[in-house]
TrEMBL record:
EC number, as in UniProt: 1.2.1.27
Upper lineage: Bacteria, Bacillati, Actinomycetota, Actinomycetes, Micrococcales
Protein name in UniProt: methylmalonate-semialdehyde dehydrogenase (CoA acylating)
Gene3D superfamilies: Aldehyde Dehydrogenase, Chain A, domain 1 (3.40.605.10), Aldehyde Dehydrogenase, Chain A, domain 2 (3.40.309.10)
Pfam families per record: Aldedh
PANTHER family: MALONATE-SEMIALDEHYDE DEHYDROGENASE
Keywords: NAD, Oxidoreductase
Residue numbers spanned by region Disordered: 1-29
Keyword NAD: yes
Enzyme class: oxidoreductase
Length: 500
């Protein structure tokens, strides 16, 4: 670092950058270099209030804007994003560390939701019952909520906010986004793009911060809903406090995703998939595979194939064409690495130790190579806790039934996959497994934007998932209209409850 004052990532309020007055900031690192490159503003309550006030002021005119015009703005945003996404990918890589191709992948999955929102008029159509009662028609309309809050995690600084804001905005709401303080610049870039697309000031607002900003949103009476994604303890906290304050809340939490491998599976495809889903984005994906559940007798052969593939991976700076980048912070890298000692102490077999990795990158980067641990006891913290790094565990089970039983016993229920050539087994898996998103020979079953994303159990608090039809429901409130146009034959006094 030079002696120059570091850049402070500001807020975006009223359609422009606004410097923080809180006096609090946090460091933002380039994880591949291992150095602090910027700082980020941490909002106080007054700044959260200013952000919400701006969003509240923008709401009536935006909600009044025709659906066709709102969609046209979203469409222009889509065109700009498509043309300029490499800029955004570079920002993501420089603060998160994921390789550039993966950053582009994240953007394209977020863009899918933008594209879905371009056709929102279709999803906002109401229902109509003619002559539901004598002379009476009944119909439903969906209206926006008002100011909606989004609180996002570090691991997808563009895609996760984009699970929510395109639908929220197209539906006529105004959005206040509180991105992760670890990689906040993507949100600012998106805000500038919205402005360029013609979105009125105040419709998309970014307030940077930590717990204080989150609490400010959870307690603010003008914030009508909260869409949260992050770790399970914070998701639970956000759900409990948001609902206590009368808000609609969807809070997506952590994960520990299992991949069940049956003896009839194609083991080369399976090993490729385990490596891709276990080590892509350095395992910092909520849909990463972290446990391979091998139904015997496949384990020895499968572990050998996975080990072989790990040997071919290039680890290093995401801007240098590597397969896998660093972890997000030094502290997180150290925590993830500490599980390798836990594994050894608990009697597991460390097949590949990521601490010994050679990297194509700066020495101080937050590196940890792909780690493969076999024969992990299910009582070990390596198995029970979400590690959120490039550590792939293998648990050996005697049967298909034992595999399903193991998956259903865990606390999380985000995603899971089965690898098999037996359609009957796959169908039974799909029916019996208590998990929200299922892959059949697909290791990371993130549903496309027309479907909805979200887990079960401790992976989702609330009853509404992200995007697709559930996203439309979340960001609108339903009104039912009962209408009668005067007909002289239906007059008269009747104090009874209206009947059909
Ligand atoms: P995190 O829970 O630490 O942070 C998420 C958000 O909560 C951030 O904006 C952060 O500023 C805020 N926050 C942190 N501590 C807080 C506190 N004490 N009070 C109030 N707000 C607080 O999560 P993370 O480390 O940024 O992201 C990784 C986690 O997110 C993993 O557990 C991962 O599984 C999960 N995740 C889940 C999904 C999903 O769809 N279920 C998707 C992506 C990530």
């Amino acid at each position: 670092m030079t002696n120059a004052e570091p850049q402070v990532v500001p807020h975006w309020i009223d359609g422009r950058e606004q410097e923080s007055t809180s006096g609090r900031t946090a460091p933002v690192y380039d994880p591949a270099l291992g150095v602090e490159t910027k700082r980020v503003a941490l909002a106080n309550r007054a700044e959260v209030d200013a952000a919400v006030a701006s969003a509240r002021a923008a709401f009536p005119a935006w909600a009044e804007t025709s659906l066709a015009r709102r969609q046209a703005v979203v469409f222009r945003f889509r065109e700009l994003l498509e043309a300029r996404k490499s800029e955004l990918a570079e920002i993501i890589t420089s603060e998160h560390g994921k390789v550039l191709s993966d950053a582009l992948g994240e953007i394209s999955r977020g863009q899918e939701v933008v594209e879905f929102a371009c056709g929102l008029a279709h999803h906002l159509k109401g229902e109509f019952s003619e002559q539901a009662s004598s002379g009476i028609d009944v119909y439903s309309i969906r209206q926006p909520l008002g100011v909606v809050g989004i609180i996002s995690p570090f691991n997808f600084p563009a895609m996760v906010p984009a699970w929510f804001f395109p639908i929220a905005i197209a539906a006529g709401n105004t959005v206040v986004l509180k991105p992760s303080e670890k990689d906040p610049s993507a949100a600012l870039w998106l805000a500038r793009l919205w402005k360029e697309a013609g979105l009125p000031d105040g419709v998309f607002t970014v307030v940077n911060g930590d717990k204080e900003a989150v609490d400010g949103l959870l307690e603010h009476p003008e914030v009508r809903s909260i869409s949260f994604v992050g770790s399970t303890p914070i998701a639970r906290y956000v759900y409990e406090n948001g609902t206590r304050n009368g808000k609609r809340v969807q809070a997506l939490g952590g994960a520990k995703n299992h991949m069940l491998v049956l003896p009839d599976a194609d083991l080369d495809l399976t090993a490729d998939s385990a490596v891709n889903a276990g080590f892509g984005s350095a395992g910092e994906r909520c849909m990463a595979i972290s446990v391979v559940v091998a139904v015997e007798p496949v384990a020895d052969e499968l572990v050998a194939k996975i080990k072989d593939r790990i040997g071919g991976l290039k680890i290093g700076d995401g801007r240098r064409g590597c397969d896998m980048g660093p972890l997000v912070t030094r502290e997180h890298r150290d925590k993830v690495a500490s599980y390798i000692d836990v594994a050894a102490a608990d009697g597991a077999s460390v097949v590949v130790d990521g601490r010994e990795v050679e990297v194509d990158g700066e020495e101080d980067g937050f590196w940890l190579g792909p780690t493969l641990i076999d024969k992990v006891p299910t009582t070990s913290r390596v198995y029970t806790e979400e590690i959120f790094g490039p550590v792939l565990s293998v648990v050996r089970v005697p049967s298909f039934e034992a595999g399903i039983e193991l998956i259903n016993r865990g606390a999380f229920g985000n995603g899971t996959a089965i690898f098999t050539n037996d359609g009957g087994a796959a169908r039974r898996f799909q029916r019996e497994v208590q998990v929200g998103m299922i892959g059949i020979n697909v290791p990371i079953p993130v549903p496309v934007a027309t479907f909805s994303f979200g887990g079960w159990r401790d992976s989702l608090f609330g009853d509404t998932k992200a995007h697709g039809a559930e996203g439309v429901r979340f960001f609108t409130q339903l009104k039912a209209v009962t209408s009668r146009w005067l007909d002289p034959s239906h007059g008269g006094i009747n104090l009874g409850f209206p009947q059909n």
